[in-house]
TrEMBL record:
Residues 286-371 form the Beta-ketoacyl-[acyl-carrier-protein] synthase III C-terminal domain. Residues 150-216 form the Beta-ketoacyl-[acyl-carrier-protein] synthase III N-terminal domain. Pfam families: ACP_syn_III, ACP_syn_III_C. The keyword Acyltransferase applies. It comes from the Bacteria. This is Beta-ketoacyl-ACP synthase III. One of its GO terms (molecular function) is 3-oxoacyl-[acyl-carrier-protein] synthase activity.
Amino acid sequence: MIKAVISGTGLYTPPATISNDELVSAFNAYVERHNSEHADEIAKGEREALQPSSSAFIEKASGIKSRHVIDKEGILDPERMCPNIPDRPNDEPSVQCEMAIAACNEALKQAGKTAADVDALIVACSNLQRAYPAVSVEVQDALGIEGFAYDMNVACSSATFGLQAAQNAVENGSARAVLVVSPEICSGHLNFRDRDSHFIFGDACTAILVEREENVTAGQGFEIQGTSLKTKFSNAIRNNFGFLNRADKSGVNKPDKLFVQQGRKVFKEVSPLVAETILKQLGSLSLDASELKRMWLHQANLNMNQLIARKVLGRDATTEEAPVILDEYANTSSAGSIIAFHKNKADFSSGELGVICSFGAGYSIGSVVIRRR
Ligand code: CO8
């Protein structure tokens, strides 16, 4: 039987960063202007005053200290509060394609492979910058990969669901190697005027190369032991942006056409579901949680990750056991758990086990147990 191995990972990090203080200062300038423009209505009780945001709240509630973004200026302009990412002509690579190329090249280099060794590419992410042609086919062409490519979206679990698709393609023989790439431009769909969520997301792109075991140098990479995917419908995290928006006369600029969530509800409902999924999966592989060296968890909220890790291990996890990257990156949707993996895997010795686990909108959970070769 053919076995699938993760032989390389790559990461593209946009150079621009926004600290909590910078973000809060732009938000509060917007609040001040809004409240002074509507002072009469607020005084008469006809309109509610907007409340300021605070860096202390953001760090305490989420663990986020800063985020990387494609464009800083537009987000921090209180008049605009949206990134400036101009459209490009069709004969230039799209922004997502550019991010994907950088991450894929690093993954290929880490694996010691070239595009000629790859048969398929999946762009797996929360937001695609156009409907078609598929961004994946553009990336495939830019990298010079023969074979096939497709886009897929399972929100924050896109990369782990993509990993299972890659594992299947490698193990059933339809591809020698598959690149799973997650160009997440979360700032494009974040409502920077919403106090409850303006701090949550950042931008980044990850890539993972999945290959046949026989094509990977002995002792290199992580063998995929098993994947466990779960979905359960919920309205608690939504983004109603879509191609039918223009067909609704009330217009495309309503707040529900951007990211909206009931954060508390998500926290309460998803955390136990994630721990349960991991434990069940370990059981089905005849493994015990105590055998895990590391959990590379989705990076949405520090308190949530600490709770999930505690439920899985039966005790508090150390930061070595459940590494954190959301302090620097914020929530980068499907890229988050892969960034944690990319940055925290070099110390693994042969035979050691870990789990990559994503969770988010849908709800969707993707858990991938891997063993260092
Ligand atoms: N500054 C100051 N105070 C604030 C702020 C703020 N910015 N925001 C809220 N508060 C106040 C509230 O008004 C409230 O005050 P009061 O107690 O007086 O009513 C108090 O702080 C507490 O508010 P919350 O209950 O909302 O705060 P929480 O402690 O629940 O923290 C979090 C909010 C951080 C959002 C938390 O609930 C959380 O992280 N939950 C989990 C969320 C999660 O994991 N979501 C996953 C979503 S990711 C995903 O799947 C989407 C993928 C698609 C990507 C699309 C890209 C855009």
